[in-house]
Structure prediction request, 479 residues.
Amino acid sequence: MVKYVETEVAVIGSGAAGMAAACAAAERGAKATIFEKNSRIGGSIRGGMGPLGIESHLQKEKHLHFTAEEAFKFHMDFTHWKVDARLVGEYIRKSADTISWLEGMGVKFTDVAAYYPGAYFTWHTVDYEAEKITDVLFVQAKKFGAEIYYETTVKKILNDNGRILGLSGRDNYGKDIMVQAKAVVVATGGGSGNAAWIKEQTGYNQGQDLFIISYPEIQGEGVRMAWEAGAAASPVTVDAFICLPDPYGGPGGTLEELGAFRQPNLMVNLDGERFMNEEIIKNPGLGGNAVHRQKNGCGIMIFDAPIKDDYAEYGLDYGLVNRPFRKGAPIDGIIEKARCEGYEHLFMADSIEELSAAAGIDARNLARTIAEYNAACDSGRDEIFYKPPKYLRPITKPKFYAARFFLSGYGVLGGIKINHHAEVLSKEHEVILGLYAAGNDANDVFGDTYPFALAGSSSGFCYNIGRIARENAAKYVQS
Ligand SMILES: Cc1cc2nc3c(=O)[nH]c(=O)nc-3n(C[C@H](O)[C@H](O)[C@H](O)COP(=O)(O)OP(=O)(O)OC[C@H]3O[C@@H](n4cnc5c(N)ncnc54)[C@H](O)[C@@H]3O)c2cc1C
Prediction:
């Protein structure tokens, strides 16, 4: 038995991009139907704390002056103009309106934050415990008449000579579904749950030199289906950042109780050599790039008891947004617990030799590096990487602490080439009529590194391109 469905705009995936597209299409009077393989709304967006907004009313109220022009110029310089400038501009310019649009739907933003000292205040955060943004959008989408089919995996986009006819899939009970639609929006969230896909597309080895936050339902299916329907390929990347492997990693790179590790203290590779100005760890994207170049993609952050006491007394150099470091955080207890659980990346020792042996660092080199580093701390001059004197804290007294950092990622980005109307392009650079893509599946605007200076860019791109996709899909089906 096949189930037949007729709609105007069929949306594949109910995450940030899919829900924004569905809600906005329905709002514009188009019949929107969402197909979601899960039994609930949203994929990786459920981990998100909020999108980017530029020139939003919330920023203006807080006197956070940062214009769309400045954001655009920053973004394009950061990406060396290797990304679609028109697409970047469209999403940045739309972002203030999208913040207001989300508020109008019932989303409550609690803060506008910057990811690190010196970054821009673009991150419109929601209370972590609050209702998810996608749930709020869905309530509205239903009011506008949108429908959702849960536990339904879309398998194929149907087209005839380049004209989109709909899609087909199967529900979790084995029933096939055929959907007739005038427009299809692909928003399946990338491929973070598919290690083979990640390896094939990016070269990273999940579990070895990459510890991406993996959502098993997100398999790269949208990108594959769009390619089969004639879409051109765009580069596939990971919005990667420096992180402890789970379960001690967190959105800021560590569990909040372990924030003392994500600070500008001594960092070495497995050879016991410094390799970066540790100040840059504040920007997890740049920190991740530096760590990934090292042996086994690994960098080890080291501090000692006096530094720990200093943090307990005066707070961290770099706070974690919305995740305050608690004074007297039980670091020793957490490391002890991690050790009992067999966790391999946190260490505590009474001597540098013992620490080297436990963490797998070349002991002689580490002793030499620490001697050199401590001399730089004494003189206040880092002649190798020019770290500012205020972050030059010597490593002198036990206990000694270490954590092995690697590369993590929020998701796999890109694959489907779109234009600034979110229309999918063919290999000949022609628009495939009726086919749109949004969110991670279509995000090739970050270049090779996630722009943490513009925090919230990831879901910001999804919500805004989702809205752009729906506007054009709604126009297309009504024309
Ligand atoms: C822990 C964490 C924290 C984050 N924090 C932030 C943040 O604070 N700010 C920010 O901007 N970004 C953040 N991000 C990134 C953000 O969550 C993503 O950019 C965003 O979720 C991507 O949205 P999307 O719509 O492309 O995909 P998703 O939200 O992942 O949604 C994709 C949906 O498609 C469904 N699907 C997949 N395949 C199929 C199929 N074949 N048929 C039907 N349905 C399918 C999936 O089940 C899923 O529901 C964070 C990510 C993580 C993991």
Summary: Residues 2-236+414-478 form a domain with the FAD/NAD(P)-binding domain fold (CATH 3.50.50.60). Residues 12-18, 35-38, 42-45, 47-51, 153-154, 187-189, 213, 217-218, 221-222, 251, 410-411, 439-440, 456, 458-460, 462 surround flavin-adenine dinucleotide (CB under 6 Å). The longest strand covers residues 400-413.
